User: Which sequence fits this backbone?
């Protein structure tokens, strides 16, 4: 009976693992096949010969470095702004005693419920009037707006668990609010800050809808647009598309693989009082 329970537990754990890993494995095999092998309908078959030149074509013909640099710039600026704004807002909400603290937190929580697609038309009109349409700023601003609520939620939950005695002793020593925030609160809040960085990176790196709506210039487009390089009027190079997708997903996979523990620590850090 004990062995049966253990087998059931292993089976329950194996199902999500397989469902998560299979698409990645399938994409990797897809990227190493020829068009003929991809179109013959055998989804589970191995390639007869590994087509490593698909990756060379994806790197050179797909302008990988250009799209990569645009994605890195947009993502990095967004992450920095989100961390700065969300940490200050979370500090004010969780550590100060003021009348509208709960109301402000409610506004941030409401921001988590607004779907990104519902804002496309009004943002398009606003950015056109501001003459920032077809610039990286038209992506960075909404990315910050949609990433900040969840960041405030995570950081405020952790900051509430920080003992107030730390701040009180710093006040007695003559430290200002800004000094306490910079020298005490932020260093202590490294785990949730890392969590916010990783979640923001994952959400923005392969975002397509806003980028396709607000960016039309070829030199400003981000990584997801590289796949269209291999689509012409009369043919599609599926192997190169698969290779480009693998190369685009690789940074996210590596960052999540090496820093996944930080996500867990950050999410549960504020759940238990210190």
Assistant:
């Amino acid at each position: 009976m004990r062995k049966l329970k253990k087998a059931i537990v292993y089976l329950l754990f194996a199902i999500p693992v397989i469902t998560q890993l299979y698409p990645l494995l399938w994409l990797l095999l897809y990227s190493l096949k020829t068009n003929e092998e991809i179109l013959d309908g055998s989804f589970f078959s191995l390639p007869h010969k590994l087509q490593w030149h698909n990756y060379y074509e994806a790197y050179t013909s797909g302008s990988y470095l250009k799209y990569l640099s645009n994605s890195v710039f947009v993502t990095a600026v967004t992450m920095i702004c989100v961390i700065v704004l969300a940490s200050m807002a979370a500090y004010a909400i969780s550590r100060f005693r003021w009348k509208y603290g709960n109301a402000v937190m409610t506004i941030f929580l409401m921001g988590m419920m607004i779907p990104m697609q519902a804002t496309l038309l009004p943002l398009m009109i606003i950015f056109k009037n501001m003459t920032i349409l077809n610039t990286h700023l038209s992506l960075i601003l909404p990315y910050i707006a949609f990433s900040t609520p969840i960041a405030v939620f995570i950081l405020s939950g952790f900051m509430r668990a920080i003992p107030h005695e730390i701040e009180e002793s710093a006040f007695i020593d003559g430290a200002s609010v800004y000094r306490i925030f910079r020298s005490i609160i932020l260093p202590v809040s490294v785990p949730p800050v890392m969590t916010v960085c990783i979640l923001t990176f994952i959400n923005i790196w392969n975002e397509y809808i806003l980028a396709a709506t607000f960016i039309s210039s070829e030199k400003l487009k981000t990584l997801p647009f590289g796949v269209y390089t291999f689509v012409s009027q009369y043919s599609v190079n599926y192997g190169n598309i698969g290779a480009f997708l693998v190369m685009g997903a690789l940074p996210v996979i590596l960052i999540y693989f090496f820093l996944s523990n930080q996500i867990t620590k950050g999410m549960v850090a504020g759940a238990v009082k210190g």
Summary: The chain is about 70% helix and 0% strand. The CA atoms of residues 98 and 199 lie 30 Å apart.
